[in-house]
């Protein structure tokens, strides 16, 4: 469905995927490059911590994920606020400028401190660029195809994570862990900066156009302009759907920290080659990424809540299978199931935020949600590392499987259905 401007202050602005196909497609490409920046680390960095920098403690080895997650979480919050204040495009460009030194720092950094510093910059890059592409696609899509829009956005990002993880694994197998695998990231950042500067157009007026025509239920506390503090409280605690989505997002990315930092070490401990580890590291985000094009659309058809509940429980089962497994085949099956579970959850949670939040403060609500969600990287790095050091890798994995199942039950009990058709 396409909504046209009919005069007033926003002439020529239209909402809908078809009406904005060129810009929407361009933003899909940009977000694929955002994902590629993350994917360059997925296979190589856990092995780099062990083989090059000789970090024996799992908690120490996970510090780059802690640095990345904490920085990205905080940056997400400001990305939403700055997008409302300054516009979407300046925030997007700033994110790519920050990323310029990251590949070189990863490729030639002489100490682990350089790797942590690179991940601080990477967290800022991801928080600004990924948040902004989400906000811009929500702006363009309008209310009817929000789930599908988020499916395309997240699919592009995580398919690129998978493809780059597999590519860097293959490069590292033949050329070593540094510097060649990180040259891909250098190409990504240069291309993305050029596209964001010269081809992407501002979308803030689309949100204003939708806001002028938005109708909330009579007496709704969600209507109209809210302060940033009010948006934070509503998204984090007061609204049952928004707060349930925030906690599920946090646990989802806690799982991702586990898959990123702990799974490769478990696979290596059982004798898998770097190339095999690269395949496993790619399977999960590949299925997750490709599946979101279907699950985002599906949530527009049947609603959000049940897909999120099912996805969290499927993730829990997949993580438990990783803990129980000892062979490549079992772990490959678990990675596919983990990807399917995450695909059910990831675009659907963003669609919940878009459903409930008023267009006047939606960008800030996305920022608060992503603050909680990407805070899961930091929590996951600390929790998984501490449990692995105190007990074992498998104990850490079992514990997070249980936590993921509990999160799914919270969604089942607390969240209300948010899709307007349902």
UniProtKB/TrEMBL annotation:
<feature type="transmembrane region" description="Helical">
    <location>
        <begin position="397"/>
        <end position="416"/>
    </location>
</feature>
<keyword id="KW-1003">Cell membrane</keyword>
<dbReference type="GO" id="GO:0022857">
    <property type="term" value="F:transmembrane transporter activity"/>
</dbReference>
<feature type="transmembrane region" description="Helical">
    <location>
        <begin position="114"/>
        <end position="135"/>
    </location>
</feature>
<feature type="domain" description="Major facilitator superfamily (MFS) profile">
    <location>
        <begin position="20"/>
        <end position="419"/>
    </location>
</feature>
<keyword id="KW-0813">Transport</keyword>
<feature type="transmembrane region" description="Helical">
    <location>
        <begin position="155"/>
        <end position="176"/>
    </location>
</feature>
<dbReference type="GO" id="GO:0005886">
    <property type="term" value="C:plasma membrane"/>
</dbReference>
<feature type="transmembrane region" description="Helical">
    <location>
        <begin position="91"/>
        <end position="108"/>
    </location>
</feature>
<dbReference type="Pfam" id="PF07690">
    <property type="entry name" value="MFS_1"/>
</dbReference>
<keyword id="KW-0472">Membrane</keyword>
<feature type="transmembrane region" description="Helical">
    <location>
        <begin position="21"/>
        <end position="38"/>
    </location>
</feature>
<dbReference type="InterPro" id="IPR020846">
    <property type="entry name" value="MFS_dom"/>
</dbReference>
<feature type="transmembrane region" description="Helical">
    <location>
        <begin position="337"/>
        <end position="359"/>
    </location>
</feature>
<keyword id="KW-0812">Transmembrane</keyword>
<feature type="transmembrane region" description="Helical">
    <location>
        <begin position="257"/>
        <end position="275"/>
    </location>
</feature>
<dbReference type="InterPro" id="IPR011701">
    <property type="entry name" value="MFS"/>
</dbReference>
<keyword id="KW-1133">Transmembrane helix</keyword>
<feature type="transmembrane region" description="Helical">
    <location>
        <begin position="310"/>
        <end position="331"/>
    </location>
</feature>
<feature type="transmembrane region" description="Helical">
    <location>
        <begin position="182"/>
        <end position="200"/>
    </location>
</feature>
<dbReference type="InterPro" id="IPR036259">
    <property type="entry name" value="MFS_trans_sf"/>
</dbReference>
<protein>
    <submittedName>
        <fullName>MFS transporter</fullName>
    </submittedName>
</protein>
<dbReference type="InterPro" id="IPR050171">
    <property type="entry name" value="MFS_Transporters"/>
</dbReference>
<dbReference type="InterPro" id="IPR005829">
    <property type="entry name" value="Sugar_transporter_CS"/>
</dbReference>
<feature type="transmembrane region" description="Helical">
    <location>
        <begin position="58"/>
        <end position="79"/>
    </location>
</feature>
């Amino acid at each position: 469905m396409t909504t046209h401007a009919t005069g007033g202050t926003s002439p020529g602005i239209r909402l809908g995927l078809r009406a904005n196909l060129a810009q929407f497609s361009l933003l899909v490409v940009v977000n694929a490059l955002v994902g590629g920046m993350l994917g360059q680390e997925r296979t190589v960095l856990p092995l780099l911590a062990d083989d090059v920098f000789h970090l024996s403690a799992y908690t120490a080895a996970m510090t780059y994920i802690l640095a990345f997650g904490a920085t990205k979480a905080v940056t997400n919050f400001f990305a939403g606020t700055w997008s409302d204040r300054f516009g979407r495009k300046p925030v997007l460009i700033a994110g790519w400028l920050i990323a310029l030194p990251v590949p070189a720092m990863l490729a030639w950094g002489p100490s682990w401190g350089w790797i942590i510093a690179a991940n601080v910059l990477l967290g800022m890059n991801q928080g600004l660029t990924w948040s902004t592409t989400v906000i811009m696609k929500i702006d363009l899509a309008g209310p009817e195809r929000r789930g599908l829009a988020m499916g395309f956005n997240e699919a592009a990002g995580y398919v690129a994570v998978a493809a780059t993880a597999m590519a860097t694994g293959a490069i590292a197998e033949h050329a070593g862990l540094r510097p060649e695998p990180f040259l891909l990231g250098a190409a990504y950042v240069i291309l993305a900066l050029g596209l964001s500067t010269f081809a992407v157009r501002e979308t803030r007026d689309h949100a204003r156009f939708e806001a002028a025509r938005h109708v909330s239920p009579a007496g709704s506390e969600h209507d109209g302009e809210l302060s940033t503090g009010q948006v934070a409280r509503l998204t984090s605690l007061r609204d049952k759907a928004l707060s349930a989505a925030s906690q599920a997002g946090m646990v989802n990315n806690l799982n991702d920290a586990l898959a990123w930092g702990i799974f490769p070490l478990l696979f290596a401990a059982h004798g898998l080659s770097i190339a095999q580890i690269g395949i496993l590291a790619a399977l999960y985000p590949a299925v997750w990424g490709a599946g979101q094009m279907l699950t985002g659309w599906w949530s527009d058809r049947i609603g959000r809540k049940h897909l999120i509940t099912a996805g969290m429980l499927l993730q829990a089962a997949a993580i438990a299978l990783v803990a129980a497994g000892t062979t490549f085949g079992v772990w490959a099956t678990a990675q596919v199931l983990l990807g399917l579970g995450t695909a059910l959850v990831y675009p659907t949670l963003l669609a919940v935020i878009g459903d409930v939040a008023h267009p006047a403060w939606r960008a800030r609500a996305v920022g608060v949600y992503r603050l909680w969600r990407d805070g899961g990287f930091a929590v996951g790095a600390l929790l998984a590392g501490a449990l692995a050091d105190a007990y074992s890798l498998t104990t850490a994995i079992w514990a997070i499987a249980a936590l993921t199942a509990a999160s799914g039950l919270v969604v089942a009990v607390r969240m209300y259905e948010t899709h307007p058709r349902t």
